[in-house]
Amino acid sequence: MPSRGARIRTGDLADPNGARYQAALHPEREKGTGTRYRRDVASREELIAFANGYLDLEAYPDYGPMGLQVVGAERVSKLACGVSASLELFTRAAACGAQLLLVHHGLFWDRDPRIVDRALRARLEALFAADMSLAAYHLALDAHPGIGNNALLARELGIAPERRFAGVGFGGPLESPCTIEELAARIERRLDRPPLVFASGPETIRRVAVCSGSAARYLADAAGEGYDCYVTGEPGEPSLMTAREARTHFVAAGHYATETLGVRALARLLAERFELEWEFVDLPNPV
């Protein structure tokens, strides 16, 4: 199935620890399901340790346990990645032959009840039957300045991610100031879906803040920090009136659509470093 979501631009991205890697060695392949570099085998623990360190996982306390969540095969020859843990994702990843699945939204959250119900049992059984490990990276993957959802999304939209916004997002100037109609069209081209737009800001947009996923609550902060437009994934019920009163454009580009970039970039990074095969399992979500 062809990939959906934004394309990751070619170019070197900096690791805060000093390492660099090329974001898309073969950008023309981005419309495919993944890339084979050279079939090899790597240690699960080595892969997880590298990902945890690269993303500086300990620096981003989260709403649940991140990193390795379910233990599967010790040796990995193929990675799969997807946005959110689900039975369908696990089934599809197993069918493609992966031993390690990377997700942005994992199985376990602090707010969830401490009981294995039928749905969770079915998900766990699918992982166990495939001997497939599950690793989740949430806020740390949103925040990373090189392969994070927000840095990549900002660059896709022509925004220079010059400063932090809302802890894990980024804000900065547009490379070329534009109208809200032009920015909305650019978002639709990059993410392959029309965004929800509350056009309430200035005619010319010069500065934009980005925070992927469910972050509508930061709209007033974006306005207060002088941004002309705020881009996130989902709207909130107050977003329309907040945008009007703050005289700031608000764009909801899709929770799923704004969060495909980071997990694909992470899978690609691991595949390149450890010479593995990888595949993005696309389960488009209208939210």
What does this entry look like structurally?
With 287 residues, this protein is an alpha/beta fold. It folds into two domains: 12-137 and 259-280, Udp-n-acetylmuramoylalanyl-d-glutamate--2,6- Diaminopimelate Ligase, Chain: A, domain 1; 149-255, Udp-n-acetylmuramoylalanyl-d-glutamate--2,6- Diaminopimelate Ligase, Chain: A, domain 1 (3-Layer(aba) Sandwich). The strands form four sheets. The protein has a six-stranded mixed beta sheet with strand order 3-16-7-8-9-5, with helices on both faces. Helix 2 runs parallel beside helix 3. It has helices at residues 44-54, 87-95, 118-130, 139-143, 149-156, 180-191, 219-224, 239-246, 261-274; strands at residues 12-14, 20-22, 34-36, 42-43, 67-70, 75-76, 78-84, 100-105, 133-136, 163-165, 169-178, 196-198, 205-210, 229-232, 249-252, 277-280. Helix 7 (219-224) links the parallel strand 13 and strand 14 (229-232).
Biggest pleated-sheet summary: 6 strands, mixed
Mean pLDDT: 89
Count of the domains = 2
Instruction: Spell the H/E element sequence.
Output: EEEEHEEEHEHEHHEEHEEHEHEHE
Structural class: alpha/beta
Relative helix content: 25-40%
CATH architecture of the largest domain: 3-Layer(aba) Sandwich
Number of strands: 16
Search tags:
287 residues; alpha/beta; Udp-n-acetylmuramoylalanyl-d-glutamate--2,6- Diaminopimelate Ligase, Chain: A, domain 1; 2 domains; six-stranded mixed β-sheet; 9 helices; 24% strand; elongated; disordered N terminus
